[in-house]
Amino acid sequence: MDERIHDEYYRFVFDHSMDALLLTQPDGRILKANPAACQLFRMTEGEILAAGRTGILDTKDQKYQDALEERKRTGCVRT
Question: What is the pTM of this model?
């Protein structure tokens, strides 16, 4: 698959997924949020990016800690 088509395909999937998707960095920065994430958090993408992970998640929740461990182990988290 041509690289340009490959990029367009993944951009389309990200933008049109019914699941909330966030592209994040290990340090908690959020680089991109899809429309479903914006709807879930009732925030614009810019607001989500500015808030970062600690601004949209309850960091005291055990599920949060478990998710961080899973990401460390596998490189991604599915909730």
Answer: 0.79
* Structure token pair of residue 31: 């680089």
**Tell me: the pLDDT tens digits for 50-66?**
999 999 989 899 998 89
As given in the structure block, the two tokens for residue 76 are 């991604």
Residues 21 and 34 sit within 8 Å (Cβ to Cβ)? yes
Structure token pair of residue 47: 């607001």
**CA-based diameter of the chain, in Å?**
44
What is the distance between the alpha carbons of residues 72 and 74, in angstroms, rounded to a whole number? Answer: 6
**Please, which residues have CB within 8 angstroms of residue 18's CB and are 6 or more apart in sequence?**
36
Rounded CA-CA distance 30/22 in Å is 7
Cα 29 from Cα 37, distance rounded (Å): 15
